Amino acid sequence: MRLIVVTTALGLSSAALAQNDPAPTVFDRMAETITAAAPRTGDPVPNAWSAVSIRARAARWHLAEPDDGDGWYHRVGWVSENGRSIGIAACGPEAGVTALGFAFSGDDNTPLLEALDRAGHLTEEAGDGEPVWRFEAQGHVPARISFSVWCTPEGSAAAHSCRTSAVIAYAGDPREVSCSAP
Questions:
Q1: Distance in angstroms between the alpha carbons of the first and the last residue of the chain
Q2: Does pLDDT of 94 surpass 90?
Q3: Which residues form the signal peptide (predicted)?
């Protein structure tokens, strides 16, 4: 009888903990994608296009190997969760993905910064101009992230709205990388 009571109590405790565990958000899925696309420590930078396609399972895209072109490749897709989507782009030379770009509606990047901090370690780098964030996930090379926000002017004929975009660079300065998302 005592075993049944203990087993039942443990089962109820597990169920209660599961209910307190919040459902992942689109920002959690984006943090997973950023981490998955980062080259693993010791691997060559950049990550091969096929490796990013396989590892970044939260993203919906087809990262075909680059065809003949100008040397800089751009593939798009999206990450979604609970009815919200974020447009995403993978960019880089023929050798592989060196950057991700993404965009979402709104002007608050705090939910994404919090999701990245939960997925690894996030610090703001001192510098001139727009802030750049450094993201480090265990077993992966660090990434640098820059954000920009564009809003319709107050009082314009269009409804006021904002859009946040960011570039994640696995090598170099994200402010100097062209990788725009849909």
A1: 60
A2: no
A3: 1-18
Q: Which one, of 54, 115, 125, lies nearest residue 102 by Cα?
A: 115
Residue 75: alpha-carbon gap to chain centroid: 15
Place of tokens 């939960």: 118
Cα 144 to Cα 124: distance, rounded to the nearest angstrom: 9
Long-range contacts of 13-18 (CB under 8 A, 24+ apart): none
For the chain, the residue count is: 182
Instruction: For residue range 15-62, list pLDDT tens digits in order.
Output: 444 456 678 899 999 999 999 888 888 887 778 888 888 888 888 876
**In the block, which residue shows the tokens 């696309």?**
37
Of 135, 146, 61, nearest to 103 by C-alpha is 146
- Which value, in Å, is the radius of gyration of the alpha carbons in the chain? 20
Strand ranges of the sheet holding 59-61, from the earlier edge strand across to the other edge: 59-61, 73-81, 84-92, 99-105, 162-169, 143-151, 132-136, 121-125
Higher pLDDT, 57 or 167: 167
For 17, 86, 92, 121, 127, the CA distances from 135, given in Å and listed in that order, are: 29, 19, 19, 6, 16
